[in-house]
Write a structure and sequence with these properties.
globular; 7 strands; 5 helices
Length: 186
């Protein structure tokens, strides 16, 4: 397994673990009751498309999942997690690419900040709302993009919004047909 592939797998595991923990604790009882699941899907798609416009459309490994946030005032809340990875030659220097995506995200009202993590190899230029290592926004949301030489990680975690997890994540809630195994005969 190549070093780059190991880095991608490790980063994916951290992102999934972070989302799972945030889904349980991030809202602090503050769901976004004025937004719908469709609203957060559209916002995630705009951010992801903006990153792809700058970095290229091909080669991304996309994962979308819905998580339950529990109940608020007897209303079921859900949270969307979108993560995507790209291992490819990039169309420019990571610092320049982050700046270009930052400009696109700003047009959607996302005021992300740029940081550089030199402890990683390759060095990562990070675009994040809220700022890198600051946790999540008060509504539980997070948008970030990590770019290093030949590697990109995109993540979006929505605020909790009213929704039915059984409708949004049906493959996680359906049961396979039961299997009947007849008794053996002597």
């Amino acid at each position: 397994m190549t070093k780059l592939r190991k880095l991608l797998i490790g980063a994916s595991g951290v992102a999934i673990a972070t989302v799972a923990l945030m889904g349980c604790t991030s809202t602090g009882g503050k769901g976004q009751m004025n937004m719908s699941p469709q609203d957060v899907v559209e916002h995630a798609d705009r951010l992801y498309s903006a990153a792809q416009e700058v970095l290229g459309q091909d080669g991304w490994d996309l994962d979308r999942q819905w998580f339950s946030c529990g109940l608020q005032d007897d209303v079921a809340l859900v949270q969307l997690s979108v993560s995507s990875r790209l291992a490819a030659d990039l169309p420019g220097r990571p610092a320049d690419l982050v700046d270009r995506v930052k400009g696109k995200w700003a047009t959607f009202g996302v005021h992300a900040e740029t940081a550089v993590d030199t402890t990683l190899d390759p060095v990562r230029y990070i675009l994040s709302d809220p700022p890198y290592l600051a946790g999540v926004n008060p509504d539980g949301s997070l948008s970030d993009l990590w770019i290093g030489t030949g590697i990109v990680n995109f993540s979006y975690v929505s605020p909790c919004v009213p929704g039915d997890i059984f409708e949004l994540q049906p493959q996680m809630t359906s049961s396979p047909e039961p299997t009947v195994i007849p008794p053996s005969t002597p």
